[in-house]
Please model this.
Amino acid sequence: MKKIPFFVAVLFFSCIFPACDKKSPTGNNAAETTVTDIDGNVYQ
Amino acid sequence: MIQIGNQVWMAENLKVTHYINGDPILNTTSDTEWEDINTGAFCCYNNSENHGSTYGYLYNWFAVSDSRGLAPQGWHVSTEDDWEELIVYLGGNDTAGGKLKEAGTSHWQSPNTGATNESGFSALHAGCRIETYGLYMYIGVGALFWIYDDNDYYYLNNTSSQVRSRYAAKNFGGSVRCVKN
Model:
């Protein structure tokens, strides 16, 4: 069985699974961090 | 947290039990106490902590506007200007509500008209506690968010895609969303 060259495999998977940039359909970005209140509750 | 236009909003409702200086906020389970109160207080819908942990707590406006502060450092309780900027960015009062509501009917009651959550705001139907008899109302059908500036709130419901504002008594109980400074 022939081995698939590494760069071909990378190209294949990058086409199938494009990088997720967390953009919503309106183009809004999910913020990168969380915030914690004085009680220790963590908010998304 | 979610960036919407130039704003960063929390993607869930506040559930803090202390002001920023560490003073506790009164947790009022008594209906009569809620009706008569004229100081800051919060509650969980139907006095159920399960509701509170999912939908956040309901605060009266005395707590929302208290100078000791509810919002974490670097954040503030949303203002009228924050909401108006948000609504304009999302296309106006008639459609913005749908873009703010969690989609589907796993939480919101049917028909949850126009709900797409395109903004990522993920508004849930947390309901409210009215000043009259301290009654809990509108779980499943309404989301009501206090603003800091004045005792008005912005509300969404399950039968329209609108977002509107309305005056309320200061001992009305509503949800709170914070915006990054």
